[in-house]
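quick q for whoever's on today - can somebody do inverse folding on this one?? i tried earlier but teh output was garbage lol. tokens:
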């Protein structure tokens, strides 16, 4: 039978690759140099999930999850070499977080719905962020590495929760349905009114405003524009391939 390796053995393998007599490429890697690898592996995992949903074959998803795990272990081994933290610290930290953020499971609190559980999660998360000096502002904690549509929805979510972005009457600027629909209609008219002779800069400015409004609407409606556009592109490609 094929050997079943343990998590501890995986860590030892990575440590061996990073050792003095290990792999030249692995020994050269840093947190910075591995950033593109993590982004690529995350995208490949998403592709594997799509393949699984389409075919029912989970083999590729298993492989890509392994690649994600490899990245987590590699960063942790490098961090241990730098005297920052260990993989055990990582595991302990995420375990503590899951227990802390689920008081309705591991404590005496109650949550009758997924919505209540999510609200509790968000409140605990907010408390955890207090005093974290590396967070310049609530908006800056959203990673700029995220795809722009995803990041825009997250920014809208943050704006919705910040009191300074509410009107004197307490209206939430990015979740008022009627206001957003009016803005979208006005912006669509403004873009259409530019005419064919408008400059590229003018079109870019108006299109940016329209995209921002659409992302605010997506947040308000609980939609994920990045995923929606991704799925639509895949559907269009499949339709084109079938017609060839």
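ok took a stab at it. sequence:
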């Amino acid at each position: 039978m094929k050997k079943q390796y343990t998590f501890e053995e995986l860590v030892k393998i990575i440590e061996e690759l990073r050792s003095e007599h290990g792999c030249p490429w692995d020994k050269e890697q840093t947190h910075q140099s591995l950033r593109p690898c993590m982004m690529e592996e995350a995208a490949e995992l998403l592709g594997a999930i799509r393949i699984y949903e389409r075919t029912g074959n989970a083999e590729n998803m298993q492989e890509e999850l392994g690649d994600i795990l490899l990245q987590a272990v590699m960063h942790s081994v490098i961090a241990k070499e730098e005297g920052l933290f260990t993989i055990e610290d990582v595991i302990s930290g995420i375990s503590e977080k899951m227990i802390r953020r689920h008081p309705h499971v591991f404590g005496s609190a109650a949550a009758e719905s997924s919505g209540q559980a999510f609200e509790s999660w968000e409140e605990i998360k907010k408390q955890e962020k207090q005093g974290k000096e590396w967070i310049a502002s609530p908006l800056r904690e959203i990673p700029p590495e995220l795809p722009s549509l995803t990041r825009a929805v997250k920014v809208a979510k943050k704006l919705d929760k910040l009191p300074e972005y509410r009107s004197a009457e307490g209206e939430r600027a990015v979740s008022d349905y009627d206001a957003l629909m009016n803005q979208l209609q006005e912006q669509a008219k403004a873009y259409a009114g530019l005419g064919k002779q408008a400059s590229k800069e003018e079109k870019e400015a108006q299109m940016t405003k329209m995209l921002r409004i659409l992302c605010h609407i997506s947040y308000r409606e609980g939609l994920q524009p990045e995923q929606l556009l991704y799925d639509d592109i895949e559907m269009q490609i499949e339709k084109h391939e079938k017609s060839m």
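fwiw Residues 10 and 73 are 8 Å apart (CA to CA). also The mean pLDDT is 88. so keep that in mind when u check it
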